[in-house]
Amino acid sequence: DGGITQSPKYLFRKEGQNVTLSCEQNLNHDAMYWYRQDPGQGLRLIYYSQIVNDFQKGDIAEGYSVSREKKESFPLTVTSAQKNPTAFYLCASSIAAWRSSYNSPLHFGNGTRLTVT
Amino acid sequence: DQQVKQNSPSLRVQEGRISILNCDYTNSMFDYFLWYKKYPAEGPTFLISISSIKDKNEDGRFTVFLNKSAKHLSLHIVPSQPGDSAVYFCAASGLNTDKLIFGTGTRLQVFP
What we know:
The structure holds two protein chains of two kinds. By secondary structure, chain A is mainly beta. In chain A, 0% of the residues lie in helices and 48% in strands. Chain A has no helices and eleven strands.
């Protein structure tokens, strides 16, 4: 079955450490996204990538970095510069970014809950 | 600046009755709207969408209504079932953007 796999489901880190969240998709989708969910704030876009080796900042990119070396993979690194890293992180993909809302809704993974203490 | 707003953080509805979830938007360039459903500790799943050329779209128990002049859309669930208990997000996009803007979500609880 095609889908998006995020790992691990729960992640704990000490403050000051960088941590990388994995996201893999086998849907052959061009576009991939990272969202962050906080209570009462909905889903906020961190980074997105429309094609391999290209990515753009979303609304809250500060303290995060990404790479897109392969079509299937879009890892997110939460750096020590991110002031409030504890959150639920969601990865998503769509056939193509510019028409993602029209022809193919976003498909989401099941998320990674990151806790930084 | 919240371009997509869901002003009701929660809603309780009795099983069998109608659930109405509301969403308002501010950007007049938005022309496509979606509803996602999310269970705890899972990713959102797509529920239903509507283009701005329509004012209604129906899929089984789910109907989305769009009022462009009021910049308002709503999701109706009839009849509501306990399995509908989840957080519902509305999202919007437009021709001049390549990303979805999500609302803050409404938690629906359907009780027996």
